[in-house]
Amino acid sequence: MDIDARTSDRLRHVLASAQRDGRLPSVVAGVTHGGELLWHGAAGTVDGRAEGTAADDDTQYRMGSITKTFVGVCVMRLRDAGALDLTDRFEDHVPGSRIGGASIEQLLSHAAGAQAETAGPWWERTEGGDWDALVASPAEQRFRAGRRFHYSNLGYGALGRLLEVHHQTGWFDVVRTELLEPLGMDRTTPRPAGSAAPGLAVHPFADVLLREPEHDGGAMAPAGQLWTTVRDLARWATFLGGDTGDLLSADTLAEMCEPHHVVDNPGQPWTGAHGLGWQVANVDGVRYAGHGGSMPGFLAGLWVRLSDGTGTVAMANATTSTAMKTLQDDLLAVLDEDAPAAVEPWSASGDAALLELVGTWHWGASTTTAKVVGEHLVLGEPGVGRGSRFARTGDDDWVGLDGYLTGEPLHVVRRADGTVSHIDLASFRYARTPYDPDADIPGGVDGSGWH
Fold first, then answer.
1. Buried b (16+ CB within 10 A) or exposed e, 44-74
2. 126 and 154 belong to one structural domain
3. How confident is the model at residue 448 (pLDDT cuts 50, 70, 90)?
4. 390 and 410 Cβ atoms separated by less than 8 Å
5. Pair (280, 423) in one structural domain
6. Are 132 and 245 in a shared domain?
7. Domain limits at 244?
8. Model confidence over 229-267: pLDDT tens digits?
9. Residue range 284-304: average pLDDT?
10. Does residue 319 share a domain with residue 222?
11. CA 264 → CA 36, 69, 81, 291, distances in Å?
12. How distant, in Å, are the alpha carbons of 97, 253, 316 from that of 299?
C-alpha cells in the first residue's frame, strides 16, 4: 500500500481540521499497514500559542491507558513461558491484597470486580505511593470476580506488581527489556524525556489554557504512565497488526484480541468488549482492537482493523476533546478511499488429494457443502449456524476454527479399502446420503428405510 501526494494532502487536512475543530493545542497522528508507518503528521504547537514550538514526530505525549497493553503483553509472555496460568488467583503470586481472589485473566479483562480508581486522592493528579501503600488504602472489590466488566485502573496497578514480583525488578524495566528495546521504541519512557508536550487543559468557554500536573504514579503507573512519540506508538500498532518481532506468538496475540467481556451499557447495543489487555470494537461487523488513553492534559488512541492489520494512532495534549476518535475514523476512511489494499490474485494452489472430502454431506436430514479454501477444509458458511473452517492436525484429523465448532475435532472415517465412509465431527456423523446405513449412524438406521 502506497501513500501518494494527494492522499498525504487529504490526511494532513483531516489532521489540521481535527486540531482546529477540537481546540487541541497540538496533535500528532499516523497510519500503519503491513508493518510500516505509511504516513504521519502533526498540527498545532505544543504550548498552544500561534508563535509556539510546532509538534513533530519526535515530540513525546503521555499515552495514558495504552500503557496497559504493554503490561498485558508482558503478563501473557509470562503465561507462555509457563510461569503462571491465567486461571491462577492473583493471591497465588502477590499475596496480601483484598483483590487476591480474582484470577489473572479477570484482571487482564477488567472482570475482577476491582474498584475503578484508588481510595485516596485522584491518582492521575497526585504523586503515587508504593504497592504496600496502595493495598493499605484500601484496594477492594466492588463486584464478585467474573460477574461483569468493570474497568479498573487499580487492576492494572496490580498486574504491574505481578510483573515486578516475577522479574524481581520494576515493571517498566520489564516492559523496556522485553518489548521496547527489541522493537526499537527508544522514545517511549516512564517520564517525559527530550522533546515533550506539556499537558494542557483548554477552558470550555474561552481560548485560554491551564497547565496540568505531571508526576510519578508509583504503584498506579502501570495503568497510564508511559510517554511516547507518534513513531514509537505506530510501531506498537504494527505489533498489534501482527508484526510482533517474534516477541509474542500469533496465537497468543489472537487470544488477547478475543472479546472476553462485553462492555454493557444498559439501553445501548453491544459494540465494545475487552480482551486480555486490548480493547475490542465491533463496528458494522468489522472487528478492531486497540486502546484509548487519557491523563490530565493528554489524549491518545491506537486502533487496528484486525482483518488486514491497518492501524491509526493519534495523540494530543488536551485534557478533553471529542475530536480524537473521529480523527482516527476519518484518517482510516481516507486511506481506504485513496489507497485500498492490494488485491492478491487467485491461483490454483489447492491439494487435489482433498477432493474426496469436498461436495455434499448430510447430517441427519440436513445438507451442507464442504470445500477446500487455501489450507482449510470449510463446512457450510463460517460464522453462520455451525459453519466453520477446519485446520489439519493429522492425515485424517482436523480441528474447528469458528463459532460452535472452535476447537472441536473432525475425523475422516475410511472403509477397509481406504475410501471415505463418513465424517465424524464432534460425535456428529456426516454421510454422503441422508442416514446412510453404511455410515455407522449413532442409534442405527430404521431397517424399513425411507417410506
1. bbbbbeeeeeebebebbbbbbbbbbbbbbbb
2. yes
3. confident
4. yes
5. no
6. yes
7. 13-344
8. 999 999 999 999 999 999 999 999 999 999 999 998 888
9. 96
10. yes
11. 35, 21, 33, 17
12. 31, 25, 5
Q: Say yes or no: 339 and 360 in one domain.
A: no
Nearest CA to 314 out of 18, 14, 28 is that of: 28
Is residue 370 within 8 A of residue 358, CB to CB? The reply is yes
User: What is this structure's pTM?
Assistant: 0.92
Alpha carbon 146 to its chain centroid, in Å, reads: 20
Burial of 347 (0-12, 13-18, 19+ CB in 10 A): exposed
What is the CA angle 47-53-57, rounded to 5? Answer: 105
Residue 155: CB atoms within 10 Å: 29
- Among residues 312, 344, 376, which one ends one of the domains? 344
Kindly state whether residues 222 and 275 are assigned to the same domain.
yes
pLDDT tens figures, 265-282: 888 888 899 999 999 999
- Please return the burial class of 161, using the count of CB atoms within 10 Å of its CB with bins 0-12, 13-18 and 19+: buried
In the chain, the number of structural domains is 2
End of a domain among 295, 324, 344? Answer: 344
Please report, for the domain that includes residue 59, its CATH number. 3.40.710.10
Cell numbers for 5? 501526494
For residue 373 the three cell numbers come to 479454501
Residue 76 within any structural domain of the chain: yes
